[in-house]
Specification:
By secondary structure, this protein is an alpha/beta fold. It folds into two domains: 205 residues, Glycogen Phosphorylase B (Rossmann fold, 3-Layer(aba) Sandwich); 159 residues, Glycogen Phosphorylase B (Rossmann fold, 3-Layer(aba) Sandwich). It has a seven-stranded parallel beta sheet with strand order 3-2-1-4-5-6-7, sandwiched between helices. A six-stranded parallel beta sheet has the order 11-10-9-12-13-14, with helices on both faces. Strands 8-15 form a two-stranded antiparallel sheet. Helix 3 runs antiparallel to helix 4 and helix 9 crosses helix 13. The longest helix is centred in the first third of the chain and has 19 residues. It is globular, with a radius of gyration of 21 Å. 48% of the residues are buried. The mean pLDDT is 94.
């Protein structure tokens, strides 16, 4: 098939484009990411359609506005321009895959010109559900909406135009069906992980104190205030955070260690000296770091809004992923303690995935997608 993919950044659809290309499809990847960047992630240069030169002034303005009151509007202008340009330059295709929020004009153009089948990729919950959750986070500061009305109108229009809405997790499916979208129009496909980058690790020695690790932005959306609360209920346990700092305060206790963001291939070193991965997100489609931690040998404790539950169906031992309700530090603390007790008993190489390891790969993710393209023809 001739497949066009539209996105602003790399996201997971760069991995998708690479896998669809490896399956023999003719893939064109339209984005702001230059070919020398996507090549590092295995996407052949022949697939890259670099659109940044078309929108260079707006791209520069959006970068300059980062961290200011103009950031949101600058990004909206950039996304709309990217979409408008893509709608005129996308070549004939049988399937169009667009990241939600940035493909409204392109959907209309490729359907009109080529009668193309439309797949809209939505990595988070339905935009209205996402907006409601983010605007009702306890302790959230500021009066500006976390999701603009511009984004809501645009996404809903894309949902209505799509033949298929692609999501990564069951809780995301539910957020759509609750708002009247038939489940028959939704394709659920949990994301994969680079298994070469995240090999099984050796269990820390018994002399190493129990350690919980969380990777990603330290923010209220990620439920880091809840994670910190749950951690404080445990005794003689360390907490490691790797990533940037958002709107949640970092704990000041000496048992908490914060590390600035690192390249993905450096994360495995942090996983190797930890016992359990914890994620308390209030809304997260399917956090990729969970699969990375599992592949590295760490049991995962997460909330019901992280997509962690969906990873259980690919595991021989589903108990490797413990799921608790969001905003419940007591339940989270209990699950973390149980997981730590189990993790401390592990010795040697922590290959928790065993023979089912390949099911969590990007290759498996791409093959599931390829089957869906055929089934939904």
């Amino acid at each position: 098939m001739r497949i066009a993919v539209l996105t602003s950044g790399r996201f997971h659809v760069c991995d998708l484009a690479r896998e669809l290309d490896s399956l023999g499809h003719d893939v064109a990847f339209y984005s702001l990411v230059p070919p020398w960047r996507t090549r590092k992630f295995g996407l052949p240069n022949r697939c890259n359609r670099w659109l940044a030169p078309y929108v260079a002034p707006l791209y520069a303005a959006a970068r300059a506005a980062k961290g200011t009151v103009f950031e949101a509007r600058a990004n909206e202008l950039l996304i709309d321009a990217l979409d408008q340009i893509a709608s005129t330059v996308i070549s004939r295709c049988d399937v169009f895959i667009g990241m939600s929020g940035m493909c409204l004009h392109s959907i209309q153009a490729v359907r009109r010109k080529y009668q193309t089948r439309i797949f809209v990729e939505r990595g988070s919950r339905h935009i209205v559900s996402q907006k409601e959750i983010l605007e009702n986070i306890p302790g959230r500061k500021g009066s500006a909406p976390s999701v603009s009305e511009w984004s809501v109108r645009r996404e809903i229009a894309e949902y209505e135009l799509a033949d298929t809405i692609v999501v990564p997790a069951k809780h995301v499916v539910q957020s759509f069906t609750e708002r009247g979208v038939p489940e028959s129009r939704i394709f659920r496909n949990p994301y994969g992980v680079d298994l070469n980058m995240f090999p099984a690790t050796q269990a820390p020695s018994l002399e190493v104190r129990p350690q919980i690790i969380m990777a990603g932005t330290w923010s209220l959306q990620k439920g880091c205030d809840v994670l910190a609360d749950a951690w404080r209920r445990l005794r003689d346990v360390g907490l490691i955070h790797v990533g940037s700092v958002g709107d949640a305060p970092l704990p000041r206790e000496p048992d908490f260690k914060h590390y600035s963001p690192v390249a993905q291939h450096h994360l495995t070193g942090f996983y190797a000296r930890s016992h359990v991965f914890g994620l308390a997100s209030r809304q997260d489609g399917l956090a990729l770091v969970q699969a990375q931690a599992l592949a590295s040998g760490l049991p995962v404790v997460c909330t019901d809004r992280t997509g962690g539950e969906d990873l259980r169906e690919y595991l021989e031992n589903p108990d490797l992923v413990s799921v608790v309700p969001s905003d419940d530090p007591r339940a989270l603390a209990s699950a973390l303690q149980i997981a730590l007790d189990k993790a401390r008993s592990l010795k040697g190489l922590r290959d928790l995935l065993g023979p089912g390891r390949a099911a969590l790969s990007w290759r498996a993710y791409g093959m599931r997608y390829g089957i869906a393209l055929g089934e939904r023809a």
